[in-house]
Design brief:
By secondary structure, the chain is α/β, with parallel strands linked by helices. The chain has helices at residues 34-45, 59-70, 101-106, 127-137, 222-237, 247-257, 279-292; strands at residues 5-9, 49-54, 75-80, 116-120, 123-124, 147-155, 166-173, 179-191, 194-197, 203-204, 210-218, 260-267, 272-273. It contains seven helices and 13 strands. The protein starts with a strand and ends in a 10-residue tail after the last helix. 39% of the residues are buried.
Length: 302
């Protein structure tokens, strides 16, 4: 079996969630949280190492709620994303907001030397995407001078929340399935039988569009490019209290510069997550339905 790592970004504050640590909410019948199902699916697909990106202040509860349990089944490692963890020369302000998903993944640079996938902690993706990413990451690719990336592309209508609007990276691909652009699109919601985006200027969005759910597959050399791009970001934004370096925007830039190509791997699985407090029950109900269908056992890790 080829070595492949899953990086789970779990350091998010979850400001829209209404208090508590949304990544650690129980949604399964045996105290499972969404990450249990992500790890279970990834291990079934072939991933053999899990790296959690967390904050120091949630480490104890995080280990108790998931880390210690799954470490009996797969290699588990931790790295920490703290706002202050940037080069000294860039510490210009007392910033409270995290620096974004590029910074999060970069925190794992010293311990990830193999192909890897990246996911959000509070998203359920379904097994198909893990199988496709693992297959792509462990396959041989022709050398063409470009970094070979991949991305799980979900269908927009399968990723909407019933409890509020969402932000999605709407993707375009060429006839060969290579990603050509990602457009961050805000305030997407279903309204009057249509899928709309925008606030002051409302636009209808094709519900069958492919969207990014921050599920990426990367070769190990991506970490060096990520460090280079994040340094460039800091040079321009180290006095900002709010600017974030985001993976979709960074990767879109690499595509436009011709430094990388990204294969869009379509998943028809339904996404669900806990963006809003009200989402928790819907997630629990969806997990119960998947258990009833035989997709998961009632006690995941027995």
């Amino acid at each position: 079996m080829s070595k492949c790592t899953l990086i789970i970004m779990a350091a998010g504050i979850g400001s829209r969630y209404g208090g508590g640590i949304k990544q650690l909410e129980q949604v399964g019948p045996d105290n499972e949280i969404i990450m249990d199902y992500s790890v279970y699916d990834a291990v079934k697909a072939g991933f053999d190492k899990i790296v959690f990106i967390i904050r120091h202040d949630i480490e104890k509860e995080f280990r108790e709620r998931i880390g210690d349990r799954i470490s009996k089944h797969v290699n588990v490692q931790y790295v920490f994303q703290e706002t202050s963890d940037i080069p000294e020369k860039h510490k210009k302000i007392d910033r409270k907001k995290p620096w974004g998903t590029c910074h999060a993944v970069l925190c794992a640079k010293d311990i990830v030397k193999e192909p890897f996938a990246v996911i959000n902690a509070d998203d359920y993706y379904g097994r198909q995407a893990y199988e496709q990413l693992y297959s792509y990451l462990t396959a041989e690719h022709p050398a063409n001078g470009k970094m070979q990336l991949c991305m799980a592309g979900f269908i927009l209508k399968n990723t909407l929340s019933e409890n509020g609007s969402v932000t999605r990276g709407i993707c375009r691909a060429d006839s060969s399935g290579l990603l050509t652009s990602i457009t961050e699109t805000y305030n997407i919601r279903r309204e009057g039988g249509k899928v709309l985006s925008g606030k002051t200027e409302t636009v209808e969005v094709d519900e069958n569009s492919h969207v990014s759910m921050n599920m990426w597959g990367c070769p190990p050399e991506f970490m060096d490019k990520l460090a280079e791009e994040f340094e460039r970001f800091l040079c321009e934004n180290d006095k900002s209290e709010t600017a974030e370096s985001l993976l979709p925007i960074m990767i879109d830039g690499l595509l436009k510069k011709g430094e990388a190509q990204c294969r869009l791997l379509e998943s028809r699985d339904r996404w669900f997550g806990v963006t809003y407090k009200e989402d928790k029950q819907a997630v629990a109900d969806s997990i119960a339905q998947l258990i009833a269908q035989g997709v998961y056992p009632s006690k995941l890790w027995e």
